[in-house]
Fold:
Amino acid sequence: MKRAFAIFLMAFAVAALGFADETAEIYQMLYKQAEGLPQKCAAVSSLVSLDDKSTAPILAAALEELLLKGQSYSSPGDQELYGRAVRLLSQALGDYKYTPAASDLWEVSQSVSDVLAQAEAIISLGKLRSLEYAERIALKLRDLNLKPTEDRDSGEKLAYACVISLDKLKDPRGFSPVFFAIDSWYSLRVRQQAIDALPRIADDPTDSIKEILGVESPERKLRALQAETASKAAPQRKVEAAVLALNLGHLKIPRDKAEGKTLADLRKLALRSLIAYKAAGPDPVDGCASSFAKGLDDEEKLLALSALGTNGSDPAASVLRDVIMKMNDDQRAGLSDDTRNRLAKAAMENAGLTKNKLLKPALLAVTFNDKWSGGILLAAQTALKAMQ
Structure:
């Protein structure tokens, strides 16, 4: 009987190629006439292999029936056949983008013991763009990220499927769990998939990134800001994240030199973002002032001066004015070296960039100090001309 049924399936599959418009009802008949799980599995396999989108309602009905009868298939052999049939149906329904099957696909991911079937169902929900399941898939990945599963291979398969699905769903709720999957316990395959997917999940991930900046380690803060700068978020949103990162980069007291360098790298990236997007107004000023006063190295201090010059607001100009006046007093007192001179010249140039007249008294004071080199005096004079 089984052999006769299989032969009939093969014959029908060949014949059906000639009358595709009339096959849907016959497909349904074939599945309904299948006796027992082996025949149903054979019917499912044959129907899926025809690659005909019109079979989607029949395949969805077959999946629904299998889910209802799943508890009755308890032997190892039946469980293997059952998992294979559910996996084939889940993949086909996703490929056909048959949205009415979404709830059953989620049920597969929750109740079917076959891990590959679960994974295929999760991926198919992404193919369907079933956004109502985006949060659930994100939470599933979040939970998987926390610690290795008892069966690591199964956990990795499900995490991989969640990453692919969230990539396809492109819902901002998927950003954080995919971000954390990058440095979680998974093998390189899963982590690389998360790295590849992350930029595509949300055009504007700023809200998620600001949450990460607020609570995570310096390493993750830096990686989050890197993701923000690479995103498609609007410039003002990137400025918001940069200001937050800069301020937090100063608040955290480093445990050691390595962490201190990471925090400095975070602040430098934030300053570069402020410069690139011409961040103006008072919000970035305190962080820039701190980077100049307490920056790890000359690079950070120069970036701070550049960010203040680009800003150009009265608060930024006031900080630059105070910096120039302090430098001028130090120069009069005989405190001079190549580093101070390099920073002083940068301060004059950025003062000119602001075109803010609050800086005129400080620049005039420099021009009257004959202890400065000719190059710095010229920079001060050029800055004054920019304000005329």
About this structure: Confidence is low (pLDDT under 50) at residues 4-21. Residues 76-95 form the longest helix (20 residues). Residues 333 and 364 are 18 Å apart (CA to CA).
